[in-house]
Amino acid sequence: MKKRLSLSDALGQGMADRRIDILRQIGIGGSISQAARAVGVSYKAAWQAVDALTNLAGVPLVARAVGGTGGGGAQLTPAGHELLHAADALEQARRDVLARLSPQAGAASGGGPGGSAALARLALRISLRNQWPCTVQSLEPLGPLMRVHLQGESAPQLALCARITQESAELLALRPGLPVLALCKAAAVRVHAGLPAALASNLWPGRASRVSRGPAGDEVSATLDAGVHMVGFAAPSSGLRSGRRVAMAVDESAVVLAVTG
């Protein structure tokens, strides 16, 4: 079954998101490194932006070409172009709405900048780099906690669990079939060499795509067998390299859930 582009998930965090700018620059220059320089981020951050957008969109947005100018060539897929067209339309609509509402918001806040700041917070950006659109499969009460079983929306092979409080589950109105966004910071993801002896909750096999060495740990970007991207950390001097098989693990309590509306 052919995957469809999810515009609502990919564009749901507001146009303040620089990931759209990176995608646009890739379309202009045909290079990840040139796009990174144009937007003012590192090459690694640019690739992680592409990975995150791909997770949210559910389909590939950028096609890589080995040996391109400026650190490797890249071009937008048809879905990437479609996403940019939608982003442009959404940005224009957002500007029109803000132009109409900003004077009202300013008056409501006594004429100060508070109203504009409140509107700007609607385009809130977050630091959690691992983001996956999911659907709630079931809810499992565990005393004062609730274990939420999730399935990837565009990657049905992705199964994960989040452990939250009963109150949080009630406030989010969680129920089977509800679309949610699962998020996890990269620092909470543990990366191990090789494949796990047996699969367990929130333990996924994959293949490393990029490895950055660091004294506090090696940062690893990987493509899971389930078809999504994930960023985590291995032990310092792990010896992991691009192309190696890895296992990514995260505690259920480290998975954050978000719903819209």
Automatic annotation (TrEMBL):
Pfam families: HTH_1, TOBE. Belongs to the ModE family. The keyword Transport applies. One of its GO terms (biological process) is molybdate ion transport. SUPFAM superfamilies: MOP-like (SSF50331), Winged helix' DNA-binding domain (SSF46785). The keyword Repeat applies. InterPro entries: LysR_HTH_N, Mo/tungstate-bd_C_term_dom, ModE, Molybdate_resp_trans_reg, Mop_domain, Transp-assoc_OB_typ1, WH-like_DNA-bd_sf, WH_DNA-bd_sf. It comes from Paracidovorax valerianellae. Keywords: Molybdenum, Repeat, Transport. Residues 125-193 form the Mop domain. Transmembrane segments: none annotated. One of its GO terms (molecular function) is molybdenum ion binding. Coiled coil: none annotated. This is Molybdate transport system regulatory protein.
